[in-house]
């Protein structure tokens, strides 16, 4: 009895999935380009609320972002791929060391854009060669709604924290997409399995979720410490704690993480030494030193001034008077972002010293935001216990 031969499209799909696995992807599934019809309305509503903050690029090419065929008219299928970066320990443990810097888990690795793009090209190359089709690869660099497409392909579902959640990999997946003219058999979409759980919402230090499944980026620590180019509103600074780049809180508390095995992909392994850097050392970074320390990681793209701004907020939150010297050393920095937060941190840690330095600083300060920080009411010094 002869075994029925698989259709060519199914054979091609299996070859693509096998290559993806060989390249280190944890999961690879297929969605039709027509699989997210609700995306345009949802994106429009989110933008209308201003929840994208100053990420102006989110408003650009909205039709292409929400409708895959608008981005590439010949596309018929989307191969969605996920690579796990699940930790082998508690990524929130660093929050208990206020004199150390908390850097988001994903950013303590080689930049995932560089790693995944090469792997996507390998998978796409096989698809193009064996299928005689056209392909385009995307990894967070084009107007592609990766998370809705990933849900449509069955990789997981968008949780109440808006991040993709997988039953096998928790909240720890990097995503990539391959658009293709091949009409591959689509996988079933994943349904929502959050239930009544709201751990990710309740843990947010800055109340960035106005409702389940809604994120207001303007209050999100990841946005504030990475994307936001200006001064961070004073009402949000205390919630930032010692998080100097990104925030893992809502991801780390997801119950589905218990099924995720620690990531074994060597080229995405953690960079030694970036898990508990002293704030005092980071405050001393000039631009060359910053670039050298964070070479090859996502942190480098933020730039020295914005990063040191974040470090000074962490110093101001530390309740460690010994870090006042780090703040004082930066009150005359070339960057107004840095000077403003140096003044703020100093008024919190050493108010008497700040009062002494303020007159001289204000004499030469032309930036209105920096001047405002010097003139803010000085807190009473805490009594020694």
Features of the shown structure:
single chain, about 375 residues, alpha+beta, two-stranded parallel sheet, 17 helices, about 40% helix
Describe this structure in words.
This protein is α+β, with helices and mostly antiparallel strands. Among the domains are: 8-86 and 108-180, no CATH class; 278-378, no CATH class. It has helices spanning 8-22, 39-48, 62-66, 68-71, 112-131, 146-153, 199-202, 221-227, 234-240, 249-252, 279-283, 287-293, 304-317, 324-328, 336-349, 351-364, 368-375; strands at residues 27-32, 77-84, 102-103, 135-138, 157-158, 164-165, 173-180, 243-245. The strands form three sheets. A four-stranded antiparallel sheet has the order 1-2-7-4, with helices on both faces. It has a two-stranded parallel sheet with strand order 3-8. A hairpin with a 5-residue loop joins β5 (157-158) and β6. α13 (304-317) packs parallel to α15 (336-349). The protein is elongated and about 85 Å long. The termini are far apart. The model has no long low-confidence stretch (mean pLDDT 89).
